[in-house]
Amino acid sequence: MKQFRLNLIPGDGIGVDVIHEGKRVLDKVAQVSGMSFQYSELPWSCEYYLKHGKMMPDDGMEILRDCDAILLGAVGFPGVPDHISLRQLLLHIRVQFDEYVNMRPVKMLTGLHSPLKNEKMDFVCIRENSEGEYCGKGEWHNEDKPDESVMQQSIFTRKGTERILRYAFEYARKNGKDNVLSATKSNALNYSMVFWDKIFEEVRKDYPEITSSKMHVDALAGYFIMHPDRLQVVVASNLFGDILTDLGSAMLGSIGISPSGNINPEGTYPSMFEPIHGSAPDIAGKGIANPMGTFWAISMMLEHLGCKDEANLIMNAMETVLKEGKYLTQDIGGKATTTEMTDAIIAAI
Ligand code: NAI
Ligand code: MG
């Protein structure tokens, strides 16, 4: 019997709801496929911060490491500054566990309706997840004085840049994709993105069978809207990938749909899976969050753990419910609650 130990971090706001429902889906998958999951639920959140002055205990990373994979809801809530909650928990885990690949599929599932005329899209964004614009370095000068200023730094290392670009090409090669598009902005970012482009030129030479090109990220945002059907693999820095993938999820009909896999490809540390959306304080506690981003993330997690059939069970069940159209949450045009949509998906599994 396949057995997996999962660490769950529901976090804040709707993160709590979607992880609760995600567990029910996992239990159903376990029941029909004969696998088993052992959960450890960690209360690390803004509420935890308000009690303890930190987002996780000092030995948090050791606790977290002891599992096959991590499933996270979302973190962030009014009362704790977003840069504290995000940096001390989510970004900390991504960096400490060297989850340098952030894999984000943008795939039109049957039954979804895009706000775009062109509904043909099936591509993946591969986002650098460990450095770049989110390295957290900078300086604050003359705080609250008339000449106050800040400096926010980006760090792009050869190692970090090369490995993500190479990962994108390897992914394309392994998955029969013949096109890799790199998001740049080297006209304005005269160090970081000039460097990124330079490494891209080096790496692409090793993949002559794959068509590759670069596009400035502003133009690329427009290209997402105009020609989503032409995209196959998009590779981007931490910030650019973050922005482009919220756009990608909106193109599928809602930010509540898309998943994200924070992957440590070497398997030295556990990988972490989550929906791309945040804690949505505006709808928290209303029971109306779309749980599909989490279910899709669970599907990615199962695939990562070598359980492709079980991963497909979830995707097929979601498509069944989407096609039927009876139990959709508000964000995608229905009236169902989070729990009603989950019940329907569980029944379909
Ligand atoms: P958000 O993704 O939480 O919400 C943006 C909009 O989308 C809101 O109107 C929300 O109601 C809606 N939305 C999000 N998820 C939804 C779902 N599953 N179903 C239906 N509607 C959904 O982004 P926002 O407002 O920028 O951030 C809110 C908080 O979340 C902040 O504290 C932020 O730092 C945090 N955040 C955390 C992330 C994470 O933990 N991975 C990612 C992004 C933001
Ligand atoms: Mg984001």
Textual characterization of the structure:
The chain has 349 residues and is α/β, with parallel strands linked by helices. The relative contact order is 0.17. It folds into two domains: 1-114 and 254-349, 3-Layer(aba) Sandwich (Isopropylmalate Dehydrogenase); 116-251, Isopropylmalate Dehydrogenase (3-Layer(aba) Sandwich), CATH 3.40.718.10. 41% of the residues lie in helices and 20% in strands. The model has no long low-confidence stretch (mean pLDDT 97). A ten-stranded mixed β-sheet has the order 2-1-3-12-11-4-5-10-8-9, with helices on both faces. The protein has a two-stranded antiparallel sheet with strand order 6-7. It has helices at 14-33, 46-52, 60-65, 82-96, 158-174, 192-204, 217-226, 238-251, 292-304, 308-324, 338-348; strands spanning 3-11, 36-41, 69-74, 101-107, 122-128, 138-141, 149-152, 179-184, 211-216, 233-236, 259-263, 271-275. It contains eleven helices and twelve strands. Residues 14, 74-76, 82, 86, 90, 255-256, 274, 277-283, 289-290, 293, 331 line the site of 1,4-dihydronicotinamide adenine dinucleotide.
Write a short abstract of this structure.
With 349 residues, this protein is of the alpha/beta class. It is built from 11 helices and 12 strands.
Structural class: alpha/beta
| Radius of gyration using CA atoms only | 20 Å
What is the number of independent domains? 2
Biggest sheet, strands in spatial order?
A: 2-1-3-12-11-4-5-10-8-9
- Level of helix content? 40-55%
In CATH, the topology of the largest domain is named: Isopropylmalate Dehydrogenase
Amino-to-carboxy terminus distance: 19 Å
Q: Tell me the CATH superfamily of the largest domain.
A: Isopropylmalate Dehydrogenase
The largest sheet, given as strand count, sense and whether it forms a barrel, is: 10 strands, mixed
